């Protein structure tokens, strides 16, 4: 699809791998609201948590970088346009209407008024015109599930902040921390609190001759927090539980294994 292709293209910059390793956010052809997050981790390079597996393929119009899978379109900025009105000065109606309001504003209404001016050394009151001006203001806002100055994703999988097991403190002034619901714990509310287990982390562990231990079926890519720390995040918030028991007791998991589907490769161009 055309939008997916445009999301893989960074305009106005010719970026080599050394440029990408500096990290940051790059605007795509879809516009300012659709930015790519580029960051290095453990000697590897990632774009929106997708690994770059080949780089610096120079073409006539730019540089192509290969990705391990196609990027899902993510809108991280939801800027809001607001308008404010204010009254201009009372001036001679002979002035061009386009000059009655300051630059970057426009005139939306005009009324008669009185203004004073000097004519042959005398101050006179004259009927003039006063316009109402309209100014367009862009209010920077993050989309739900994103936080901070650059609208970084909250912990958890794409489209499911905090795995749906908590509330992310999002927004431009947000911290990106997950406030977990009762029974859940972890950076992304991906685990149960001590002594709890189950899909909803609402079942009590009842090991008679040992202690309860939660087992994660899979671990996903790391999330880098705003402080630059790495936090492991699960691919699915299903929580197994086993009892750490004597050697003659066989623990039984309470959930079935789960495996994520295969990936497809995709290029990133700049």
Automatic annotation (TrEMBL):
<feature type="disulfide bond">
    <location>
        <begin position="180"/>
        <end position="189"/>
    </location>
</feature>
<dbReference type="InterPro" id="IPR000782">
    <property type="entry name" value="FAS1_domain"/>
</dbReference>
<protein>
    <recommendedName>
        <fullName>Stabilin 2</fullName>
    </recommendedName>
</protein>
<keyword id="KW-0472">Membrane</keyword>
<dbReference type="GO" id="GO:0016020">
    <property type="term" value="C:membrane"/>
</dbReference>
<feature type="domain" description="FAS1">
    <location>
        <begin position="1"/>
        <end position="71"/>
    </location>
</feature>
<dbReference type="InterPro" id="IPR002049">
    <property type="entry name" value="LE_dom"/>
</dbReference>
<feature type="region of interest" description="Disordered">
    <location>
        <begin position="246"/>
        <end position="270"/>
    </location>
</feature>
<keyword id="KW-0245">EGF-like domain</keyword>
<feature type="domain" description="EGF-like">
    <location>
        <begin position="152"/>
        <end position="190"/>
    </location>
</feature>
<dbReference type="InterPro" id="IPR000742">
    <property type="entry name" value="EGF"/>
</dbReference>
<dbReference type="Pfam" id="PF02469">
    <property type="entry name" value="Fasciclin"/>
</dbReference>
<keyword id="KW-1015">Disulfide bond</keyword>
<dbReference type="InterPro" id="IPR036378">
    <property type="entry name" value="FAS1_dom_sf"/>
</dbReference>
<keyword id="KW-0325">Glycoprotein</keyword>
